[in-house]
Amino acid sequence: MDEVRLLQLADALRAAADPSGCIVAVWVTNKPAYMSFLLEKLLPAWGFDGPTVTWTWLKVAATGEPVTPLKSTHRLPFERLVLAARGPTEFCAAFKAWPPQTIVSVPLRHSWKPPVDQLLPSNLLPRDAPKLELFARELRPTWTSIGNEVLKFQDLSLFELKDQPGPTSGPLPSVSP
Question: Are the beta carbons of 55 and 103 closer than 8 angstroms?
Answer without folding.
Answer: yes
